Amino acid sequence: MKLYDIAGKLAKTVASADQKPGYCNLTWNRQDAKGRTCACGGYFCTLAAEGQRFSRKVVLTE
Known about the structure:
The structure is a single chain. The protein is mostly beta strands. It has one domain. It is 0% helix and 42% strand. It contains no helices and four strands. It has a four-stranded antiparallel sheet, with no helix packed on it. A hairpin with a 4-residue loop joins strand 1 (2-5) and strand 2. It starts with a strand and ends with a strand. The model has no long low-confidence stretch (mean pLDDT 89).
């Protein structure tokens, strides 16, 4: 799962390893890849699974 800012820049890779089938909980600690706190606003969450890619808009608030 990857998070991109509204401009399309990669903010954070939350998970990159293969997961077992079923439900999975992932938590984003609101930090970017360099450990800086991300600003409030819009982000895109993308998930690649079984040859498909899914994207959803996420709004980060305080």
